[in-house]
Specification:
Elements lengths: L13 E4 L10 H4 L1 H6 L5 H17 L3 H14 L5 H15 L6 H12 L3 E9 H11 L3 E9 L5 E7 L4 H14 L7 E4 L5 H5 L3 E5 L3 H10 L3 E2 L19 H30 L1
Parallel strand pairs: 1-2, 1-5, 2-3, 5-6, 6-7
Antiparallel strand pairs: 3-4
Helix pairs in contact: 5-7
């Protein structure tokens, strides 16, 4: 089994995944900046600024102060955006933008947890309009994400209704454990950022994935496993996982196809002989 994942039938357990730089190789929100620009939601200057923010995020992660600045910037940026338009843009560009940057190692780990009977929960600071479709793409059972206030006009007001960050992530995990019956001492959690230490502390089996320097120090001090994910790959290319049927099914499909083709040829030959006669 991959990375020490054990199989338990009971009690209920779950695996909690941070999203950005843990499951996917970039910031999920910032990745859509070009699509939002093309949809008329942001201007060229905002595209350049989000590109720089993406660079900073990838180069060294984001500490608490940087995350707060990013939250304030993105909240102001999305003020007045039509929520339905945002959802449509994300749906239209999801596969082109997100599918190629999913870590193969993370996708395999998600599969292993499902095979072991665990729920998979994405817990992300990014907005729900972005995280929920990504969670569906990954086959996650649940999603915890930041929610923005939506006005009567169907547009974001710029205010934050629920901020899934730091200790709030840990609180959400504990609430899910209470409602779903998860045994947190046997649950797993994965993150790249030191800001997610409360989330990692809330489970019995925490893992640091591509950790920033501060989380690496914390993981080494606490003896938490450190994982290195570095192979982004499209889900369709992950043979035989996800979209590709297992080999016996392929054989069965081929056999059915061959039988149908043979029956068609026999029918055609019989009809031709009848017409000649």
């Amino acid at each position: 089994m991959l990375m020490g994942v054990e199989n338990h039938s009971s009690p209920r357990t779950a695996a909690f995944f941070d999203l950005d730089k843990t499951v996917i190789a970039k910031s999920s929100t910032l990745t859509f900046s070009k699509s939002f620009y093309q949809g008329g939601l942001i201007n060229r200057r905002a595209v350049l600024r989000t590109a720089y923010a993406q660079f900073v995020f990838l180069a060294g992660g984001a500490d608490h102060e940087q995350m707060e600045r990013m939250r304030a910037y993105l909240s102001a940026l999305c003020r007045g955006w039509n929520v339905q338009q945002v959802k449509e843009i994300v749906a239209e560009t999801l596969h082109d933008l997100i599918d190629p940057i999913i870590y193969d190692e993370a996708a395999s780990l998600i599969e292993e947890h499902h095979t072991a009977g665990r729920d998979v929960v994405i817990v992300s600071t990014s907005g729900a309009e972005v995280v929920e479709p990504i969670g569906e793409l990954l086959g996650a059972d649940r999603v915890v994400a930041t929610r923005m206030v939506v006005g009567d006009d169907g547009c974001f007001t710029g205010d934050v209704e629920y901020y899934a960050y730091g200790p709030t992530k840990a609180e959400a995990i504990r609430e899910l454990a209470a409602s779903e019956g998860y045994d947190l001492s046997r649950c797993y959690a994965y993150s790249d950022s030191v800001t997610d230490v409360p989330m990692l502390e809330s489970v019995g089996r925490p893992h640091a994935v591509n950790p920033d320097r501060a989380l690496r120090r914390e993981a080494l001090a606490r003896g938490w496993p450190i994982l290195d994910f570095h192979r982004p790959v499209r889900l369709k290319q992950r043979i035989p996982r996800f979209s590709v049927p297992p080999r016996p099914a392929l054989v069965a499909v081929a056999a059915i196809g061959a039988a149908a083709a043979t029956a068609g040829l026999v029918w055609y030959a019989n009809r031709r002989r009848a017409s000649i006669a």
